[in-house]
Structure formats: C-alpha cells, structure tokens
Amino acid sequence: MSQEIIRQCDLIITREGKAMVKAAYSSGTPAYGAGVGNANVIINKTADVEETADSLINSKNFDQFSGCSSENYIIVQQSVFDALMARMIDL
After folding, report:
1. For the Aldehyde dehydrogenase domain, which residue ranges apply (predicted)?
2. Which pTM value belongs to this model?
C-alpha cells in the first residue's frame, strides 16, 4: 500500500526508518526524509494561526526531552508564514 501512495503523491514527507526513506527518495517523486523520531507539522492556509502557534510553543516547551513526541520542524504555507512567525515571536 505504501508504494501505491508514494506513486500517487506530489510530495513525500517521511519520518520512518531507513527503508521507507530510501523508498521515498528512489520513487521519482520529490521527497523529504527525516528518519525515525523527527515529528513534522504541515501548516496551511486553513490553520488557526493563534491556536497553532500556541500549540507549537507549548509542545516544545513541555516535551520532557523526548524529541519524537513534539515537533522537530514545521512546513508552513507561504500565505500564513508571516502571521504564524509574528504570533510565535509574541509568545
């Protein structure tokens, strides 16, 4: 099933083990591979910017030194980037 999903996507973002990252990279589809334990968040124009910023800051502040249980990186749609960054700076 993973292979079928990979074939149908425009972009692959995987944080699974080496085999999945390798499959994503060799699929011919643009891919980002972070490996196990690197949680990502994708924020698009439908996001509530204030709530999202609050959640991101709180999650990282209280992750109990467990990197895989909180966001390690975020991918933000350009249309909400400035508002999200402004809110995060305010916090």
Report:
1. 17-89
2. 0.70
Q: Which amino acid is at 67?
A: G
Asked whether residue 10 falls in the same domain as residue 53, the answer is no
Q: Scanning the structure block, which residue is given the tokens 């400035």?
A: 82
Query: 68 and 82: one domain?
Result: yes
The residue annotated as part of the active site, out of 36, 68, 75, 86, is 68
Residues 27 and 54 in one domain: no
Q: Is 68 a catalytic residue?
A: yes
Q: Are residues 44 and 19 in the same domain?
A: no
pLDDT in tens, 6-51: 888 898 888 777 888 888 889 899 998 876 777 788 999 999 999 9
